[in-house]
């Protein structure tokens, strides 16, 4: 029995997830420039709104694009990969752009300079619409690092949710083929639903991530990222990579919000599951805005 796609089986809900380890708030060594609100999308007003684009087929190691479609979006998956330079996002509240730490791609990176929001997701929320031309499973990752001190379990995480996916469409996963899945609350609190997911022959266990979680948000953290790294995980001390399942081609929305102060984010990638890591993590790949 193959892997189930749950997007067509359950109603759309606002998911829930919350925090993990505590982060120390304070002034760091990272120098931040003033935050901008202009994204690299072609939306009216330059504040991350919708833009009209035509997405065409191609091939970069993934499943390609399913024909072409005119849609309203901020970024799009092209040839199996979506790429965003974080400094081009429409920043809110105490998010700022910076260039202090060498090795970033593009023109800089972003950093939350306000207080830590360990158990308070939704602060400084950045919302982005992504056109996904092919249904299926996609992996989410970002290039990130700590921005203060040397303790890599501090200043290493940010909240993420996908509010318009089906209730089982966003989760952490490890051990492909014998999968452990970790869903945000309230999805993971539904024991019957978790048991149904475990009926899939490829899924060994389904449940909640270690650490707190609420309202669809999960804490996404890096492991050992004292320098720039693609480490992108959830579930404390039980690292799971981040996946979404898209039931049909169209626009899906992701939201990020502040958690740890001085967590630096350089680049964001969403890629079809079949795309090789070296392709998804190619720092020379161009961003894929809807334009």
Architecture overview:
This protein is mainly beta and 291 residues long. It has one domain (6-245, 271-280). It is 4% helix and 31% strand. The protein is built from two helices and 16 strands. The strands form three sheets. Strands 4, 5, 6, 8, 10, 11, 12, 14 and 16 form a nine-stranded mixed β-sheet that branches. A five-stranded mixed β-sheet has the order 3-7-15-9-13, with no helix packed on it. Strands 1-2 form a two-stranded antiparallel sheet. The radius of gyration is 18 Å and the shape is globular.
Notable characteristics:
291 residues; mainly beta; 5-stranded mixed beta sheet; 2 helices; 31% strand; globular; disordered N terminus
How are the elements arranged and paired?
Layout: E1 51-55, E2 69-73, E3 75-76, E4 81-85, E5 95-98, E6 109-112, E7 126-132, E8 136-146, E9 157-161, E10 170-174, E11 179-182, H1 191-198, E12 203-207, E13 218-221, E14 241-246, E15 250-257, E16 263-272, H2 277-280
Parallel strand pairs: 3-7, 11-12
Antiparallel strand pairs: 1-2, 4-16, 5-6, 6-16, 7-15, 8-14, 8-16, 9-13, 9-15, 10-11, 10-14
